[in-house]
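#struct-pred

JT: dropping the chains for the assembly here, can someone run the whole complex?
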Amino acid sequence: MKSGDEVNLVLEVKDLHVEAGGKEILKGVSFTVMKGETCVLFGPNGSGKSTLLSAIMGLTTCKVTHGEIIFNGKNITGMAVNERAKMGIGMMMQRPPNVTGVTLGDLCKAISSEDHLILKKSSEFKMKSFLERDINVGFSGGEIKRSELMQLMAQKPDFILLDEPESGVDLENISLIGRKVHELLYSKEDSKCKDRTELEYKHVSSLIITHTGQILDYTDADRAFVLMDGLIRCTGRPMDIFKDIREKGYEGCVSCRMVQTSQ
Amino acid sequence: MQDGSNESVKKSFNARPSYDHKVDIETYVVDDSQIKVDSLSKMEKNTRKTMENVGIVTDEKDRAGTIMFINNKVSYCSIRSQDGLEIMPMSEAGEKYHWLKDYCWKAVNPESDEYTKRAYHDNADGYFIHVLPGYHIKDPIQSCMMIGTKKGIQTLHNVIVIENGGYLEIITGCATGSHVNEGLHISISEIYVKDDAEVVFSMVHNWGTKTAVRPRTTCILNKNARYTNNYILLEPVGTLQSNPSCFLNGKGSSCKFNTICLAQKESDIDIGGIAILNAPNTSAEIISRNICNGGRIIARGRLVGNSNDTKAHLECKSIMIKDGGRTEAIPELEATVPNVEMTHEAAVGKIAREQIEYLMSRGLSESDAISMIVRGFLIGSINGLSENLRSKVDDAIKKTDLGN
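RK: done, full complex below.
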C-alpha cells in the first residue's frame, strides 16, 4: 500500500550522476517533485541545471552513470526520449536546434491532437507568420521561446521542464511569455494566482530554471532547489532563496541556509 | 626516368576512370517491335501501374497530351484539344517539318560520348513537342519512356521547341516494365526556349535495380526565357549518370535545376546540373538534395559565368543515413569575366542527433522524426515543386527504411 506522498509523487530523482562531454556534471543529485507542484531550479552558470533537465528528458548529450529517475512510479532512466514524452514529460529547451526544412506548423500538426486550433494558438503566441518557417531558423530569442511554448501547448504534457523561459526575451514579450507559462501550468492565462482546484484536476507539475527570477512573477512556485557543483545544496521557498541569492550570491545563500539547517 | 616495373602502375592500365561506371552497350538487346494502343486504358494492367508510379495519369485527366515509348517505338500519342500545342514522334515530325533539322543535334553534339553517338547512329526516334508563339498551355503534358524487354536497350532522341511567349509544363516518367530489372536507357533531349517563353520539365524515374540510365539533356534559352528542371529519383537504380546543361544565351534568361535523389543500396548515381551564363542579367540556381541510404551518390553542380551582370547559386547537400554508402559533393564555379556573383554551398553528413531528439521530445518516434527531417531536407527548400511531386517524395520516404 502506497503512502499519500508516494501517490502524489510525480518525479523522484535518486543519487543521479551524469556525464556530458566526458566530464561528470551531476554528482549525486536527489530530489522529488509532487503532483501539481511548481519547482524552481537555481544555480550559477555551469552548475549542471540544463544537464539535469536534459537527463530527465532523456537527451543523449548526457549520460547517466549512476542513480535513477522515477516518473509516475516508473523507472525511466534508460527510456527513449519519445517514450518519456508519451508518458507526459515536455521540455522547453534554452537553445533548441535549427531544423531546416521542417516548419513550425508541420511539427505542431504532427504532435497536436487538435490541429484545427493551431492557427488560433499561433495568433495568441504572435507566431502566425512563423508557421511556414523552418523551426528556429533565424528566430530571435523571444521567438524561440514563443515557438517552444506553442509546441508545448500543442503537446499538452503533464510534467513540464522549462530551461530559462525568460532568457533573451525583451521586456515587451516577457509578459506574453509569462502569461503563456502560467496558462501551461495552471490552465488560465490572466491570473497570477493559481486555482488549486483546477491545478489538482490537471496535475501539471513543473521544474523551471531561472537566472533572473522574472518568471517567478508569473508562477506561484512552491519549492526551489539550488544546484551547485553538481549537487542540490539547498531547498526552500522560492522567493526566500531568490532574495538570498540576490543579496549574498550563490555561495552566501548556500552557506546561510546550511547554517540555518544545522541550527 | 620510369623503368616500367611498378606493379601498381601496371594494374592501373585496366582501371576504370574514377567517375565513369562503364556500361557495355553491345551486350544489350535491341527490340524494335512496336506495341501500339489507341488508349492508355488498353495498356496491360501492370504497365499502367508502372506508369502511374512515375506520375503518369493513365486516364489523362488534367493532361494536355501524352506520348509514350516502349523500348524504341512509340506506343501511344494523344493531344487533348489544345490549340498551340503539337506532340508527335520525331520520325513523323521530321517528315512534316523540314525545319526540324535546324534543331536536331545542334544543342547536343552527337560525338560527346558513346551513348550520344549510339543514339545518333541508331537515328533514334523520340518525341517532338512544339508550343506555338504566345500559347500558354494550361495543363501539363506527359511523356512516358519504358524499357519493356529484359536487358533491352532504349535509345531516344527528343526535341522540344517553345516558341516566343509560350509556356509548357512537361512531366516525364521513365521506368522499366514490371518484369524487367536490367536494361539500358539512353535519351537525348534538346530543348529550345525562345524569347519570353518558359518550360518546366519534371522527371520522375523508377528503374530496375540493374538498369543503366544515361539521359543527356541540353537546353538553350533565348531572351527572358525561363527553364526549370526537376529531377526526382527515389527508387533503386543500377547506374545513373545525368548532368543536364543549360545555356543562358538570351539577356534576362534564367534557369533552375532541382534534384532530389534517394541513393538506395547498390545504386550508383552520378547526377548534377550545368548552367552556362552567356548573357547579361541572366541567373541560375542549382539545388541538389540527396539521401545516401547505402548507395553511392555523386552530386555535381557547375556554374560558368561568361557574361557580366550575372548571378548564380549552387547547393549540393547530402545526408548519409546508413553505413556502407558513399557520397560526394562536387560544386564547381568558373568565371571568365569579373562582374559575376556566383556562390555555392556543399555539405555532406548525417542528421544531427540533437535534431532527431528535439522532435522525439515532442513525442514523435525516432523513425517519424528522421522521416520528417529527411522530407524537410529533400523538399523544404525547393520552391515550386508540384503537389504531385511532393507526394511522391512523401510516399518514398514512408516506405524507405531510414533507421540507423
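JT: nice. Chain A touches chain B at residues 57-61, 80-82, 84-86, 90-91, 93, 96-103, 106-107, 110-111, 134, 151, 155 (CB under 8 Å). Chain A has a mean pLDDT of 88.
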